[in-house]
Specification:
This protein has eight helices and eleven strands. By secondary structure, the protein is of the alpha/beta class. Strands 1, 2, 3, 4, 5, 6, 7, 8, 9, 10 and 11 form an eleven-stranded mixed β-sheet that branches.
């Protein structure tokens, strides 16, 4: 893959490729990345992209996907790694997914809820991380239950416990870890959505977007993405198949 000067300038108007990453997704960015250079498949793909473009690299870190997505309005990043969502697509151009993650529910052991399709009922309150991919998805699809939003995943767990909510929604692997840590909890089998993790650029950069689409397809097809995900040592994500 080669990039001419027009593509490079579209990617990095400042001369440095600024890569936005979401610290709140432990499948994409390894826990502990708050300090120093972030690790995980998202940051590593950002580094590989900068290498191929022959551009210096700078990361910007956000506590949640919602904050990362909103930062596009202030032109805070050139490339981001976050989940595809139609609400975000009004301001952001996505590639196809490079990793699939399950959106799951956790309940108490004593809960009468046994299956995913039993959650959307009157009187059920679901704790979610505000503006996460699963919050945006559930906001469009939940008809009878109530969503109760918290700024990050940890506060959503705290709210679920302290306020006696019926369900907490999240990424399957962190929920499984929370269930094991807290005790008396279970994560329901099945998922309410597949969270499609992708890369993206701000709208208005068509040549950069076209290059990024090809880049993501190349790292999937070549096995680079699978190798990086395996090396990161995290569970709960699978590399998406090539789109072409």
């Amino acid at each position: 893959m080669t990039a001419d000067e027009t593509v490079r300038k579209q990617f990095a108007p400042s001369g440095t490729l600024i890569v936005g990453v979401n610290l709140g997704n432990p499948i994409i960015v390894k826990p502990g990345s708050e300090v120093g250079e972030p690790q995980g498949i998202g940051p590593t793909l950002g580094k590989e992209l900068a290498r191929r473009l022959d551009l210096p690299l700078r990361y910007v870190k956000y506590e949640t996907a919602g904050k990362l997505a909103a930062a596009v309005r202030g032109a805070e990043w050139d490339v981001a790694f976050l989940a595809i969502d139609p609400d975000r697509a009004a301001e952001i151009d996505f590639t196809d997914a490079y990793v699939h993650i399950e959106g799951a529910y956790m309940v108490r052991d004593a809960s009468p809820i046994r299956a995913v399709d039993e959650v959307d009922r009157p009187g059920v309150r679901i704790a979610v991380t505000a503006r996460s991919a699963y919050d945006l998805h559930l906001s469009r699809h939940i008809k009878h239950a109530t969503l109760q939003r918290y700024p990050e995943f940890a506060p959503s767990l705290d709210g679920f416990q302290a306020e006696g909510l019926e369900v907490v929604a999240g990424i399957r692997q962190p929920l499984l870890e929370a269930a094991a840590r807290l005790g008396g909890m279970r994560v329901l089998d099945g998922s309410f959505m597949t969270i499609r993790q992708a890369s993206a650029v701000p709208k208005g950069r068509p040549q950069a977007h076209a290059y990024l689409v090809d880049f993501i397809e190349d790292v999937k097809r070549s096995g680079f993405a699978a190798d990086v995900l395996r090396a990161s040592g995290v569970d709960g994500g699978t590399v998406a198949p090539p789109s072409r």
